Amino acid sequence: MDLLSVPDDRATAGAPASPSTAAAIRLRGVTKDFGAVHAVRGIDLTVVPGEIVAFLGPNGAGKTTTLDVLLGLSHATTGTAEVLGLQPRQAIARGLVAAVMQTGGLLKDLTVRETVTYMASLFADTQPIDAVLEHAGISDLANRKVGKCSGGEQQRLRFAIALLSDPALLLLDEPTTGMDVEGRRAFWAAIRADAERGRTVLFATHYLEEADQYADRIVLMRKGRIVADGTGSQIRALAAGRTVRATLEGADPDALSRIDGVESVEVRGDTVLVHAKDTDPVARYLLNETSAHDLEITARGIEQAFLALTGDHGDDDTTATLEGEPR
Question: Per CATH, the architecture of 241-299 is what?
Fold first, then answer.
């Protein structure tokens, strides 16, 4: 099956495009080889200004290599990459793009304010120091040494630094690593507020539920290719089937496995989980033929969709078609 890329009319037409009217990200036929290793195998991707896009995939899928191309740290072997209508390095040089990486880039002996002030000195024009500290939720940490900050606090410091140039495009790599629940919620509230003002955000994360909850759109990569691109609900729908959970002492997994449409059975103490394409026969069997109670039927979640779409299918060409879109 063929996965259709996002159509070009998501971005304003015209050439040359100005940063204010161009697609925030436009990749066309991008490949990246490292000798015999094909890290990225021909991807097309368009992201419009103001979108929050989650970039997901297992280790080795090509996410980091793609981000490197967008940051101008690496050149595509073939294909074209544009950021806000410019070559990636041109966009970086103009301060239109900023990145929040997972590790590195901080001096432990400086305070939070000293760190942001120092980084601001490297730019010709920046946002006020107090404003970015407040936006990143670390105003109360301004006088704390970086080395005394937690991992989540250091990540919010990197976010503050990224905001200095007031970038039009923000690239985030595992942005909430180390943050507690409250910190994550505050971080994504700030990101959403930025997106409503037109800032584009592309983030890579291993927190699948976070991607499902906060992204406008999810892009899944596997083996250097985009295998799915759509809203969270569209991605979840690609994991066909449902799960029946019930309380049943002494469940017989072999008997349950023989029911038509059952894909797998898990027994966890007195709880049984049956994954099936059609859960009606499973529910009837459990209610009529066993002592099962407390039945619960749920649709597959984002994790199941992720595993189904990015697992090893024995080939390199499996892609998904979103329901309702032409092939």
Answer: 2-Layer Sandwich (3.30)
Residues 6 or more apart whose Cβ sits within 8 Å of residue 35: none
Domain 8-96+167-236, architecture per CATH: 3-Layer(aba) Sandwich (3.40)
Instruction: Assess contact for 41 and 317: CB atoms under 8 A.
Output: no
User: Which secondary-structure segment (H or E) carries 148?
Assistant: none
Rounded to whole angstroms, how far apart are CA atoms 305 and 285? 27
Phi-psi domain of 273 (left: phi exceeds 0; alpha: psi -120 through 50; beta: other): beta
Confirm if 204 and 173 have CB atoms less than 8 A apart.
yes
Backbone torsions φ then ψ of 311, nearest 5 degrees: -70, 170
Query: Helix crossing, 151-163 with 181-196: angle to 10°?
Result: 10
- Ordered by start, the domain boundaries in the chain are 8-96+167-236, 241-299
Sheet with 293-299: list strands edge to edge: 262-268, 271-276, 242-247, 293-299
The contacts of residue 204 (CB under 8 Å, 6+ apart) are 54, 55, 56, 63, 64, 67, 172, 173, 174
| Residue 133 structure tokens | 């500290």
Q: 136, 163 in Cβ contact below 8 A? A: yes
Interval 32-88: pLDDT, tens: 999 999 999 999 999 999 999 999 999 899 999 999 999 999 999 999 999 999 999
d(C-alpha 127, C-alpha 251), whole Å: 62
Strand pairing class (78-83; 25-34):
antiparallel
- Tens digit of each residue's pLDDT (9 = 90 or more) over 207-222: 898 999 999 999 999 9
**Angle separating helix axes 112-120 and 151-163, nearest 10 degrees:** 30
Residue 192: phi and psi, rounded to 5, are -65, -40
